[in-house]
Amino acid sequence: MSENSARTLRAAITLTLCLLLIPGERVFAESNDDLSIEEIIVTSRYRAEKLSDVPDSITAYTLNDIERHRIERINRVASLTPNLRFSDDQEVGVSTLVIRGVRQNRGTGQPPVSFRIDGVSATNNLLTTQELFDIESVEVLRGPQGALYGRNAIGGAILISTRQPTAAPEYGLRFTAAQGDDFTVSGSATGPISDEKLLYRASFRLQDREGQLRNAYLDNQFVDYKESAAFRGRLLFRPSEKLNVDLRAHYLDQDGGSGYFMPGSEGFLPLPPPNPPLLFGNPTYEIQSNRIGESFVKSWETSAKIDYDLGWATLTSITSFTDVDSGNDQDLDQTLVEAIDIIVIDKSETVAQELRLVSNPANGLRWVAGVQYFSQDRFRSLATTFLGFPVPPAAQDLKLEDIAAFGNLSYDLTDALELTLAFRYDEETPEDITQGRSATFSELQPKASLAYNFREGLLGYLTVGKGFRAGGFNNLAPGSNFMPGFDKESLISYEAGLKGTSLGGRMRGGLSLFLIDYDDQQYFLFDQTGTQANINVRKSEITGGELEFAVQATESFQFDFGLGFTSSEIKEYEDIPGVLVPASAIVGKKVPGAPVWSLNLAMQHTKPLTGTLDLVSRLDFEHRDKTYWTLDNVDTQSAYDLTNLSFSLENERWKTRLYVNNLLDEEYIEWFFAARFIGLPADIAWPSKPRQVGLEFALSY
Q1: What is the mean pLDDT of residues 291-298?
Q2: Rounded Cα distance, 605 and 610, in Å
């Protein structure tokens, strides 16, 4: 860490401590009660608790937050959340998510977080890019969360709750029109079917976008076009006070552009002797693929969540079935030359079952216990064409099965001191049917924390926990040099935090500091044969922290601030077949993928125009510091800033909003792959989204 970075971090910590340690009931307590900031209730431990009472680093968004921030996908959540990065790239459905330096594994790899909607896990990594509509809350938990949220929660959990069916009829409709001929319509309806024992909620979202990014070498055709349709239905059946049955179905259909990476260097393709190398002479950082890529993701999910109150505990069963079908047809070399093309087919069917018991609080003891089962059949094929000649595809028929047991116990040692002990045991077996290989990966993941209430509304905590992500088998094509499989990864996370409210409830804040000791971190690569592979980085260390606070400065003005910091080092790495860069160039470098610093600011002002009409002005600013793209740290994204602006007229029943995303039209790289790691003719870079002006109208009744 540089001296300037260290000074900035120390100053931020000192400021937070000073603000949070102000006695909560003595300042502004009498005259400004009406200015108290909105209290956030979270359910991250399967019971309703104040955000300030939970000993974890959590960023939570309420229904009001979702509206004012225009949260419609996880990429928007990431732009507001310290140490969370989400990048779209390659095709609809594909993304790269990084949380505290823990990375996404693409292809048939697994995400670094447990991604749950209404308690149901997104069982395929292609589903993390889905549109979020008609939602009520979002909670981002950082640090290992496997004890409560299942497989792949090595870096944290993202918990999304959709809006509940209501006993009184309600209806909503929203229209949006923006640059790029980007039109969206969404709506919802809810109410009773017969009586209050049977309620329904139905919602939808449709989008048609022509695009804003063009391929100048193919008649200026748009490459970032998209058509999307999503529908959700829920039935809530309450036959008695003890029994609650929640049935849910969700359909998603996305079609859009694909493969509009930009070459980050001039193309150079070595040919077998005695042929001379093929030099492309392509321009750099321009979209120039020799075809307009196409991609799609279609999914269907059904689930049943049943809760039964036993008196001393609540028994919950969650059963889900998910079917995902996706495809991609694109130019892989991203240059003007017809060099390498690829067609991807990806299909999966998943069944998941969870049973858990959550105690009803008594005598200061609270506990959760349960078991989970996960089974997935997934077929993935990547067929490439090299200089016009087809290459045998990289095809894999993969079966995954995971059986797990978990538990969490919290006990009040004193009125002010809480001890929490948790564990999860996973046994995951991937079986590569295509190549006749199987393996079993198992791990016990304990977690312990101590939380101390210094006063009402001020909590300090210490946590240590272990995270785990199973290994697996690479999808190999003939001619690839990558290893057939990759090992499991695990980490131990140490965290200290302070969170609470101050200034008579007008300020809510939190500070967390962490150290991650990482073994066998998985890292995604691919090559020109169509192989998508994960490798293991033997030993690395990540340190950092998050600082967040929100202040209701006056009756009409609110201020939000978030700061994230990560510092990392690759401690051990060995030369790996398929990786063309030697270990000597990697050991001692930083773990790539996350900005060293990230900062977000938001200011919102509400001005009453009449007794029923408000003008709401909002400014959002985001700073992303230098980002390292590659294991050898040669390729980087320099720091950049993003600004969003909006003005809305709001009534109790309707709202109209003018918004501008990326106000200053900042250009940057969303994601980057270096040719020396992947064997392509050129480096490739995914372009950022340009400025977009839009108008939105929403009506509810």
Answers
A1: 95
A2: 16
Strands of the 262-263 sheet, one edge to the other = 262-263, 684-687, 669-673
Contact (Cβ atoms closer than 8 angstroms) between residue 340 and residue 333: yes
Report the SS3 class of residue 128.
helix
| Domain membership flag for residue 572 | yes
Which is it for the CA torsion 100, 125, 210, 223, positive or negative? positive
Report if residue 178 sits inside a domain: yes
Instruction: Label residue 19 exposed, middle or buried (CB < 10 Å: 0-12, 13-18, 19+).
Output: middle
- Which CATH number belongs to the domain containing residue 144 in this structure? 2.40.170.20
Residue from 555, 631, 641 nearest 592 by CA: 631
DSSP letters, 277-305, are PEE----SSS---SS-EEEEEEEEEEEEE
Residue 181 is given by DSSP the state T
User: What is the C-alpha separation between 343 and 382, in angstroms, rounded?
Assistant: 6
Asked if residue 523 lies in contact with residue 532, where contact means CB atoms within 8 angstroms, the answer is no
Q: Is residue 576 a part of any domain in this protein? A: yes
**Is the N-terminal amide bond of 446 cis, ω within 30° of 0?**
no
Find the helix or strand (DSSP H, E) in which 672 lies. strand 669-673
Kindly state whether residue 68 falls inside one of the protein's structural domains: yes
Q: How far apart are CA 334 and CA 344, in angstroms?
A: 16
For strand 113-117 and strand 156-162, is the pairing parallel, antiparallel, or unpaired?
Answer: parallel
pLDDT for residue 17 is more than 90? no
Question: Looking at residues 147-163, what average pLDDT do you find?
Answer: 91
Q: Give the pLDDT confidence of 199-251 residue by residue, as tens digits.
A: 999 999 999 999 999 998 999 999 999 999 999 999 999 999 999 999 999 99
pLDDT in tens, 474-516: 988 888 889 999 999 999 999 999 999 888 889 999 999 999 9
184-188 long-range contacts, Cβ below 8 Å, gap at least 24?
A: 184/208, 186/133, 186/134, 188/134, 188/163
- The total number of structural domains that make up the chain: 1
Answer positive or negative: Cα dihedral of 257, 261, 267, 271: negative
Do 418 and 412 meet the contact criterion of CB atoms below 8 Å apart? yes
For residue 89, the enclosing domain spans 3-190+403-429+462-700
From residue 90, give the alpha-carbon distance in Å to each of 87, 469, 574: 10, 24, 29
Cβ contacts of 435 within 8 Å, gap of 6 or more: 396, 473, 476, 484
431 or 130: which leads in pLDDT: 431
Sign of CA dihedral 206, 210, 215, 218: positive
DSSP assignment of 586-627: TTTPPPSSS-SEEEEEEEEEEEESSSS-EEEEEEEEEEE--E
252 - beta bridge partners? 230, 299
